[in-house]
User: What shape does this take?
Amino acid sequence: MQAATNIQNQTLTHAFHALKCKECGAEYELEAKNVCELCFGPLEVKYDYSNLRKTITRKTIEAGPNSIWRYQKFLPVTSENPIDVGTGMTPLVRSHRLARRLGLKKIIYKKMMLLICPPSASKIGWYQSL
Ligand SMILES: [Zn+2]
Assistant: This one.
């Protein structure tokens, strides 16, 4: 498991500037809010797609850390010092035995749970990734 990493050296240029209600279109400033105050509809990030095309490419994403923070410019997080505990990038795994047992040609699943056992931990726990 990847150790916690500080990714503060990245330059933040976010491609969004507001939250927008999916139901009524009301807009809100970026803050920790997920429901519209007017209609209780879900809020989503309102992206500036023209800015996205100019500043974010496949190469810039691939150059990021091997975690969810490679997508930081898409996330409604304004902190320049988020803590990276290795969330995301869970592998796709092919299961030959399960496929044979179920009579299927191929089974590929996303491994969503990774075991974390840092050297300092006294207990073993499970961690669910995205
Ligand atoms: Zn609304």
